């Protein structure tokens, strides 16, 4: 079965919504299971399509929703880079041909795409923290390089930026018309796909994209842990989690048979094929509607893809149950959450610097943060995923500040471990800032062992 056929079959996998709006596209961006709009059983093709996050018509979202007497004070955005070319090549197969130049009249389209290319091409004088200043500002290879952002990836983040602009700037006027560099905090890893994704979002978001006001800081770690990256206990949890993954794979005889079949088709040892992580390349074929590769021994097919994707879904499910990843996540996510809380506290005290923060990151950045927040049912970060923290002030009680947490446009505030019961006691549609502060400064460590009181103490606990 080719990829196009799978897309057509997908129509029959998604039941029509029985809600009064009957907006089937809305179900595609949900992160929590919905018995009305989702397939009755986990379907690997459906999950893969959600992961692709194909650009579509204007997305409906819950960002910026609050009672009229609440004032938006600051916004903190965590994104995964957009759609990219694979990081791995399937051995002995023809290289996947995808064009990474940006062409305004080619799908997927965005009205700002042509202007984005023009603006980026004039940005050679842009000043970023080293080594970011050596990276290209937009994808430009006729044959994509490994890991390079595609036109789809650029359009995904132009859409994200436009959506956030309509909400945060046009509706809530978060930034003044004379905004300055100091009011933005921009940070990215040293990959071209994260820098370019951040620039695309900013170009869609800002009313006046002025190179003199744009300054990205470089983050060497995908965990954005800055000077707090050394954490032996976190590494211990990661090793245990990786061992759990290994044992789960050994138990899956269907997965082993599938890898064996695929290895025969490409004529390499099974171990070599598995090391090449074929699902990464196959997902790119799937998302771009390109047939899976063939050799003289046969073709890789949809059945192979579905077996590996199903195993990934099972792995995520067991990961949540075994809790080893939670330990890793609590320590891995603490530095970036602590930064965010500190920035919120300064804004709550009236500070006007860094009121819009953007972290342009990876799935391995967002996934631990989601886990640490207790969002156990949140889907694995799709291409161009966005996780947003909003800080609000109650105009009727100016000293009171509240937080909302949104994932891909869905309000997940009351799914978080630090605020899951608050709505039962309060009619307000958000969570007190002090709940998040207490969680990051105390409860994250208590959740690990019940005795540690600081990040350093938790990371260096003896007896591991």
What would the keywords be for this entry?
464 residues; alpha/beta; Rossmann fold; eight-stranded mixed β-sheet; two-stranded antiparallel ribbon; 16 helices
Structure description:
With 464 residues, this protein is an alpha/beta fold. It has a domain at 44-231 and 325-460: Rossmann fold (3-Layer(aba) Sandwich), CATH 3.40.50. 42% of the residues are buried. The protein starts with a helix and ends in a 5-residue tail after the last helix. The protein has 16 helices and ten strands. Helices cover 43% and strands 11% of the residues. The protein has helices at 3-13, 24-27, 44-52, 113-121, 151-171, 192-205, 232-251, 253-266, 270-275, 278-287, 302-322, 324-348, 363-372, 422-425, 433-449, 455-459; strands at 70-80, 184-188, 216-218, 294-295, 298-299, 356-361, 386-394, 397-407, 410-411, 431-432. Strands 1, 2, 3, 6, 7, 8, 9 and 10 form an eight-stranded mixed sheet that branches. Helix 7 packs across helix 12, helix 8 packs antiparallel against helix 11 (302-322) and helix 12 crosses helix 13. Mean pLDDT is 90; it is low at 1-30. A hairpin with a 2-residue loop joins strand 4 and strand 5 (298-299). InterPro entries: His_Pase_clade-2, His_PPase_superfam, Histidine_acid_phosphatase. Keywords: Glycoprotein, Golgi apparatus, Hydrolase, Membrane, Signal, Signal-anchor, Transmembrane, Transmembrane helix. Residues 1-18 form the signal peptide. Interacts with B3GAT3; the interaction increases the 2-phosphoxylose phosphatase activity of PXYLP1 during completion of linkage region formation in a B3GAT3-mediated manner. Its main location: Golgi.
């Amino acid at each position: 079965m080719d990829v196009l056929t799978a897309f057509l079959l997908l129509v029959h996998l998604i039941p029509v919504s029985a809600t009064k709006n009957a907006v089937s596209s809305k179900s595609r961006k949900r992160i929590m299971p919905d018995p009305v709009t989702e397939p009755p059983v986990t379907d690997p093709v459906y999950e893969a399509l959600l992961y692709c996050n194909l650009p579509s018509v204007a997305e409906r979202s819950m960002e910026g929703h609050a009672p009229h007497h609440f004032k938006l004070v600051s916004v903190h955005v965590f994104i995964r880079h957009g759609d990219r070319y694979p990081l791995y090549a399937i051995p002995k197969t023809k290289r996947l041909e995808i064009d990474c130049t940006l062409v305004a009249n080619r799908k997927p389209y965005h009205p700002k795409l042509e202007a984005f290319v023009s603006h980026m091409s004039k940005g050679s004088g842009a000043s970023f923290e080293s080594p970011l200043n050596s990276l290209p500002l937009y994808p430009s290879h006729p044959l994509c390089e490994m890991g390079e952002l595609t036109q789809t990836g650029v359009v995904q983040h132009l859409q994200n930026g436009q959506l956030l602009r309509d909400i945060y700037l046009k509706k809530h006027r978060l930034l003044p018309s004379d905004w300055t560099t100091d009011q933005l905090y921009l940070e990215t890893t040293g990959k071209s796909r994260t820098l370019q994704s951040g620039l695309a979002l900013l170009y869609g978001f800002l009313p006046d994209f002025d190179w003199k006001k744009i300054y990205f800081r470089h983050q060497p770690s995908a965990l954005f842990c800055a000077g707090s990256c050394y954490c032996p206990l976190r590494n211990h949890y990661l090793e245990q989690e990786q061992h759990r993954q290994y044992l789960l794979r050994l138990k899956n005889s269907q997965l082993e048979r599938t890898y064996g079949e695929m290895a025969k088709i490409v004529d390499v040892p099974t171990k070599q094929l598995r090391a090449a992580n074929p699902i990464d390349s196959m997902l790119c074929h799937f998302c771009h509607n390109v047939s899976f590769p063939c050799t003289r021994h046969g073709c890789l097919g949809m059945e192979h893809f579905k077996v590996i994707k199903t195993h990934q879904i099972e792995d995520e499910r067991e990961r949540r149950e075994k809790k080893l990843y939670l330990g890793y996540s609590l320590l891995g996510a603490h530095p970036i959450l602590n930064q965010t809380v500190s920035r919120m506290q300064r804004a709550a005290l009236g500070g006007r610097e860094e009121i819009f923060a953007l972290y342009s990151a990876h799935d391995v950045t967002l996934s631990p943060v989601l886990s640490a927040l207790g969002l156990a049912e949140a889907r694995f970060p799709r291409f161009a995923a966005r996780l947003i923290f909003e800080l609000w002030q109650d105009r009727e009680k100016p000293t009171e500040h509240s937080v909302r947490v949104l994932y891909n446009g869905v309000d997940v505030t009351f799914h978080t471990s630090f605020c899951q019961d608050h709505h039962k006691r309060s009619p307000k549609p958000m969570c007190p800032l002090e709940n998040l502060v207490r969680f990051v400064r105390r409860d994250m460590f208590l959740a690990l062992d019940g005795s540690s009181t600081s990040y350093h103490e938790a990371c260096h606990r003896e007896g591991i």
